[in-house]
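DM from R.C. (forwarded with permission)

"hey, sorry to bug you on a friday — could you get me a structure for this? deadline for the figure draft is monday and I only need the backbone to look sensible"
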Amino acid sequence: MAWLGVKRHTLYTYVSRGWLRRYGVGARSLYLREDLERLARRRDARAGHAATAAGALRWGEPVIDTALVEVRDERLFYRGVDVLELVDDTSFEEVATFLWTGERDATPWKLAAATQGPEAPLDTAARLLRARLRDDAPDAAWMRVLAGCRRGGGGFAEALAARLGLGSEAVRPIERAAIVIADHELNASTFAVRVAASTGASRAASLVAGLCAFSGPRHGTSSVELEKLADEVGSPRRARAFVTETLTAGRTVPGFAHPLYPHGDVRSGPILDDVRRLLRRRRVPRAATLVALCDAMRDAGTAYPRIDLAFVTLATALEAPPSSASWLFAVGRGAGWLAHAREQASRDEVLRPRARYVGSAE
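My reply, with the result:
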């Protein structure tokens, strides 16, 4: 209450509205630090124009108008359509073209894996700069280069599965995962793409800007650390004890707590459904441990993990190579990067936020 500057009944209102997650441990109530910080930033962002501008760049108010994507009421919408309505019977090609043009075209892109194994974001960036595609090349051609594929073969998801050395049972789970990750508003990498595109930078340079931002451990490569989580938990039987011990110690369970989804990242639901189906047909103890962790956190009040942990859980269940989760994330998000680059390039404006001088930190 002191942190937020509110009275007790206001604190309880925040809990009832889902803005603040409460965990009961004995007779005490614990609250996630991330939620408190988010609410404090929202309060500060309403304190005046300068504070609003600063808060907007830290999970605050919207700063760019877009016709592409929206997070509203803990749901994700592509051009006004709930993404959960797209994952069951839609191809990635159809979703991508919908983001790019507003029209739906499910025609497979006919791609085949040119190489095998996942790739680091900066390696992909270097390859994009060498691709020598014209800026007016079809967006599907940029996706082919981004994924490290060549012409020929089947659909996009089939090419991704082949590149990771996986069989046919991996194709649809990979496709569904790529659909829910295709766009997510102004995350750090997408904002970097838009900043680059606003200057008139080439399509390749805009994508490279996104990949450079994505490469940081606080964004796209956070999943590399999460690959160790199953070993930290130990086994499915240890999952509930791990959650209780972690929360009681005042720490956050890794892979959960997304500022835009106080009750859990809804994009992870279809991915976890696919993981459960896979585990009914194969035994993968580390994946089973991560699913048990998600179940324990659901019972503690967070329905779904963050999307990066969901990707790690899927890659683990598929027994894909290390770092596959991060690579799939980047390739799927490429569809959104291209859509935002296209939209931003159509506007005659340079994105240029202002700085607010606060003196030295000494």
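R.C.: lifesaver. The CA atoms of residues 149 and 176 lie 19 Å apart.
me: no worries. The domain at 69-222+322-345 is CATH 1.10.580.10 (Citrate Synthase; domain 1).
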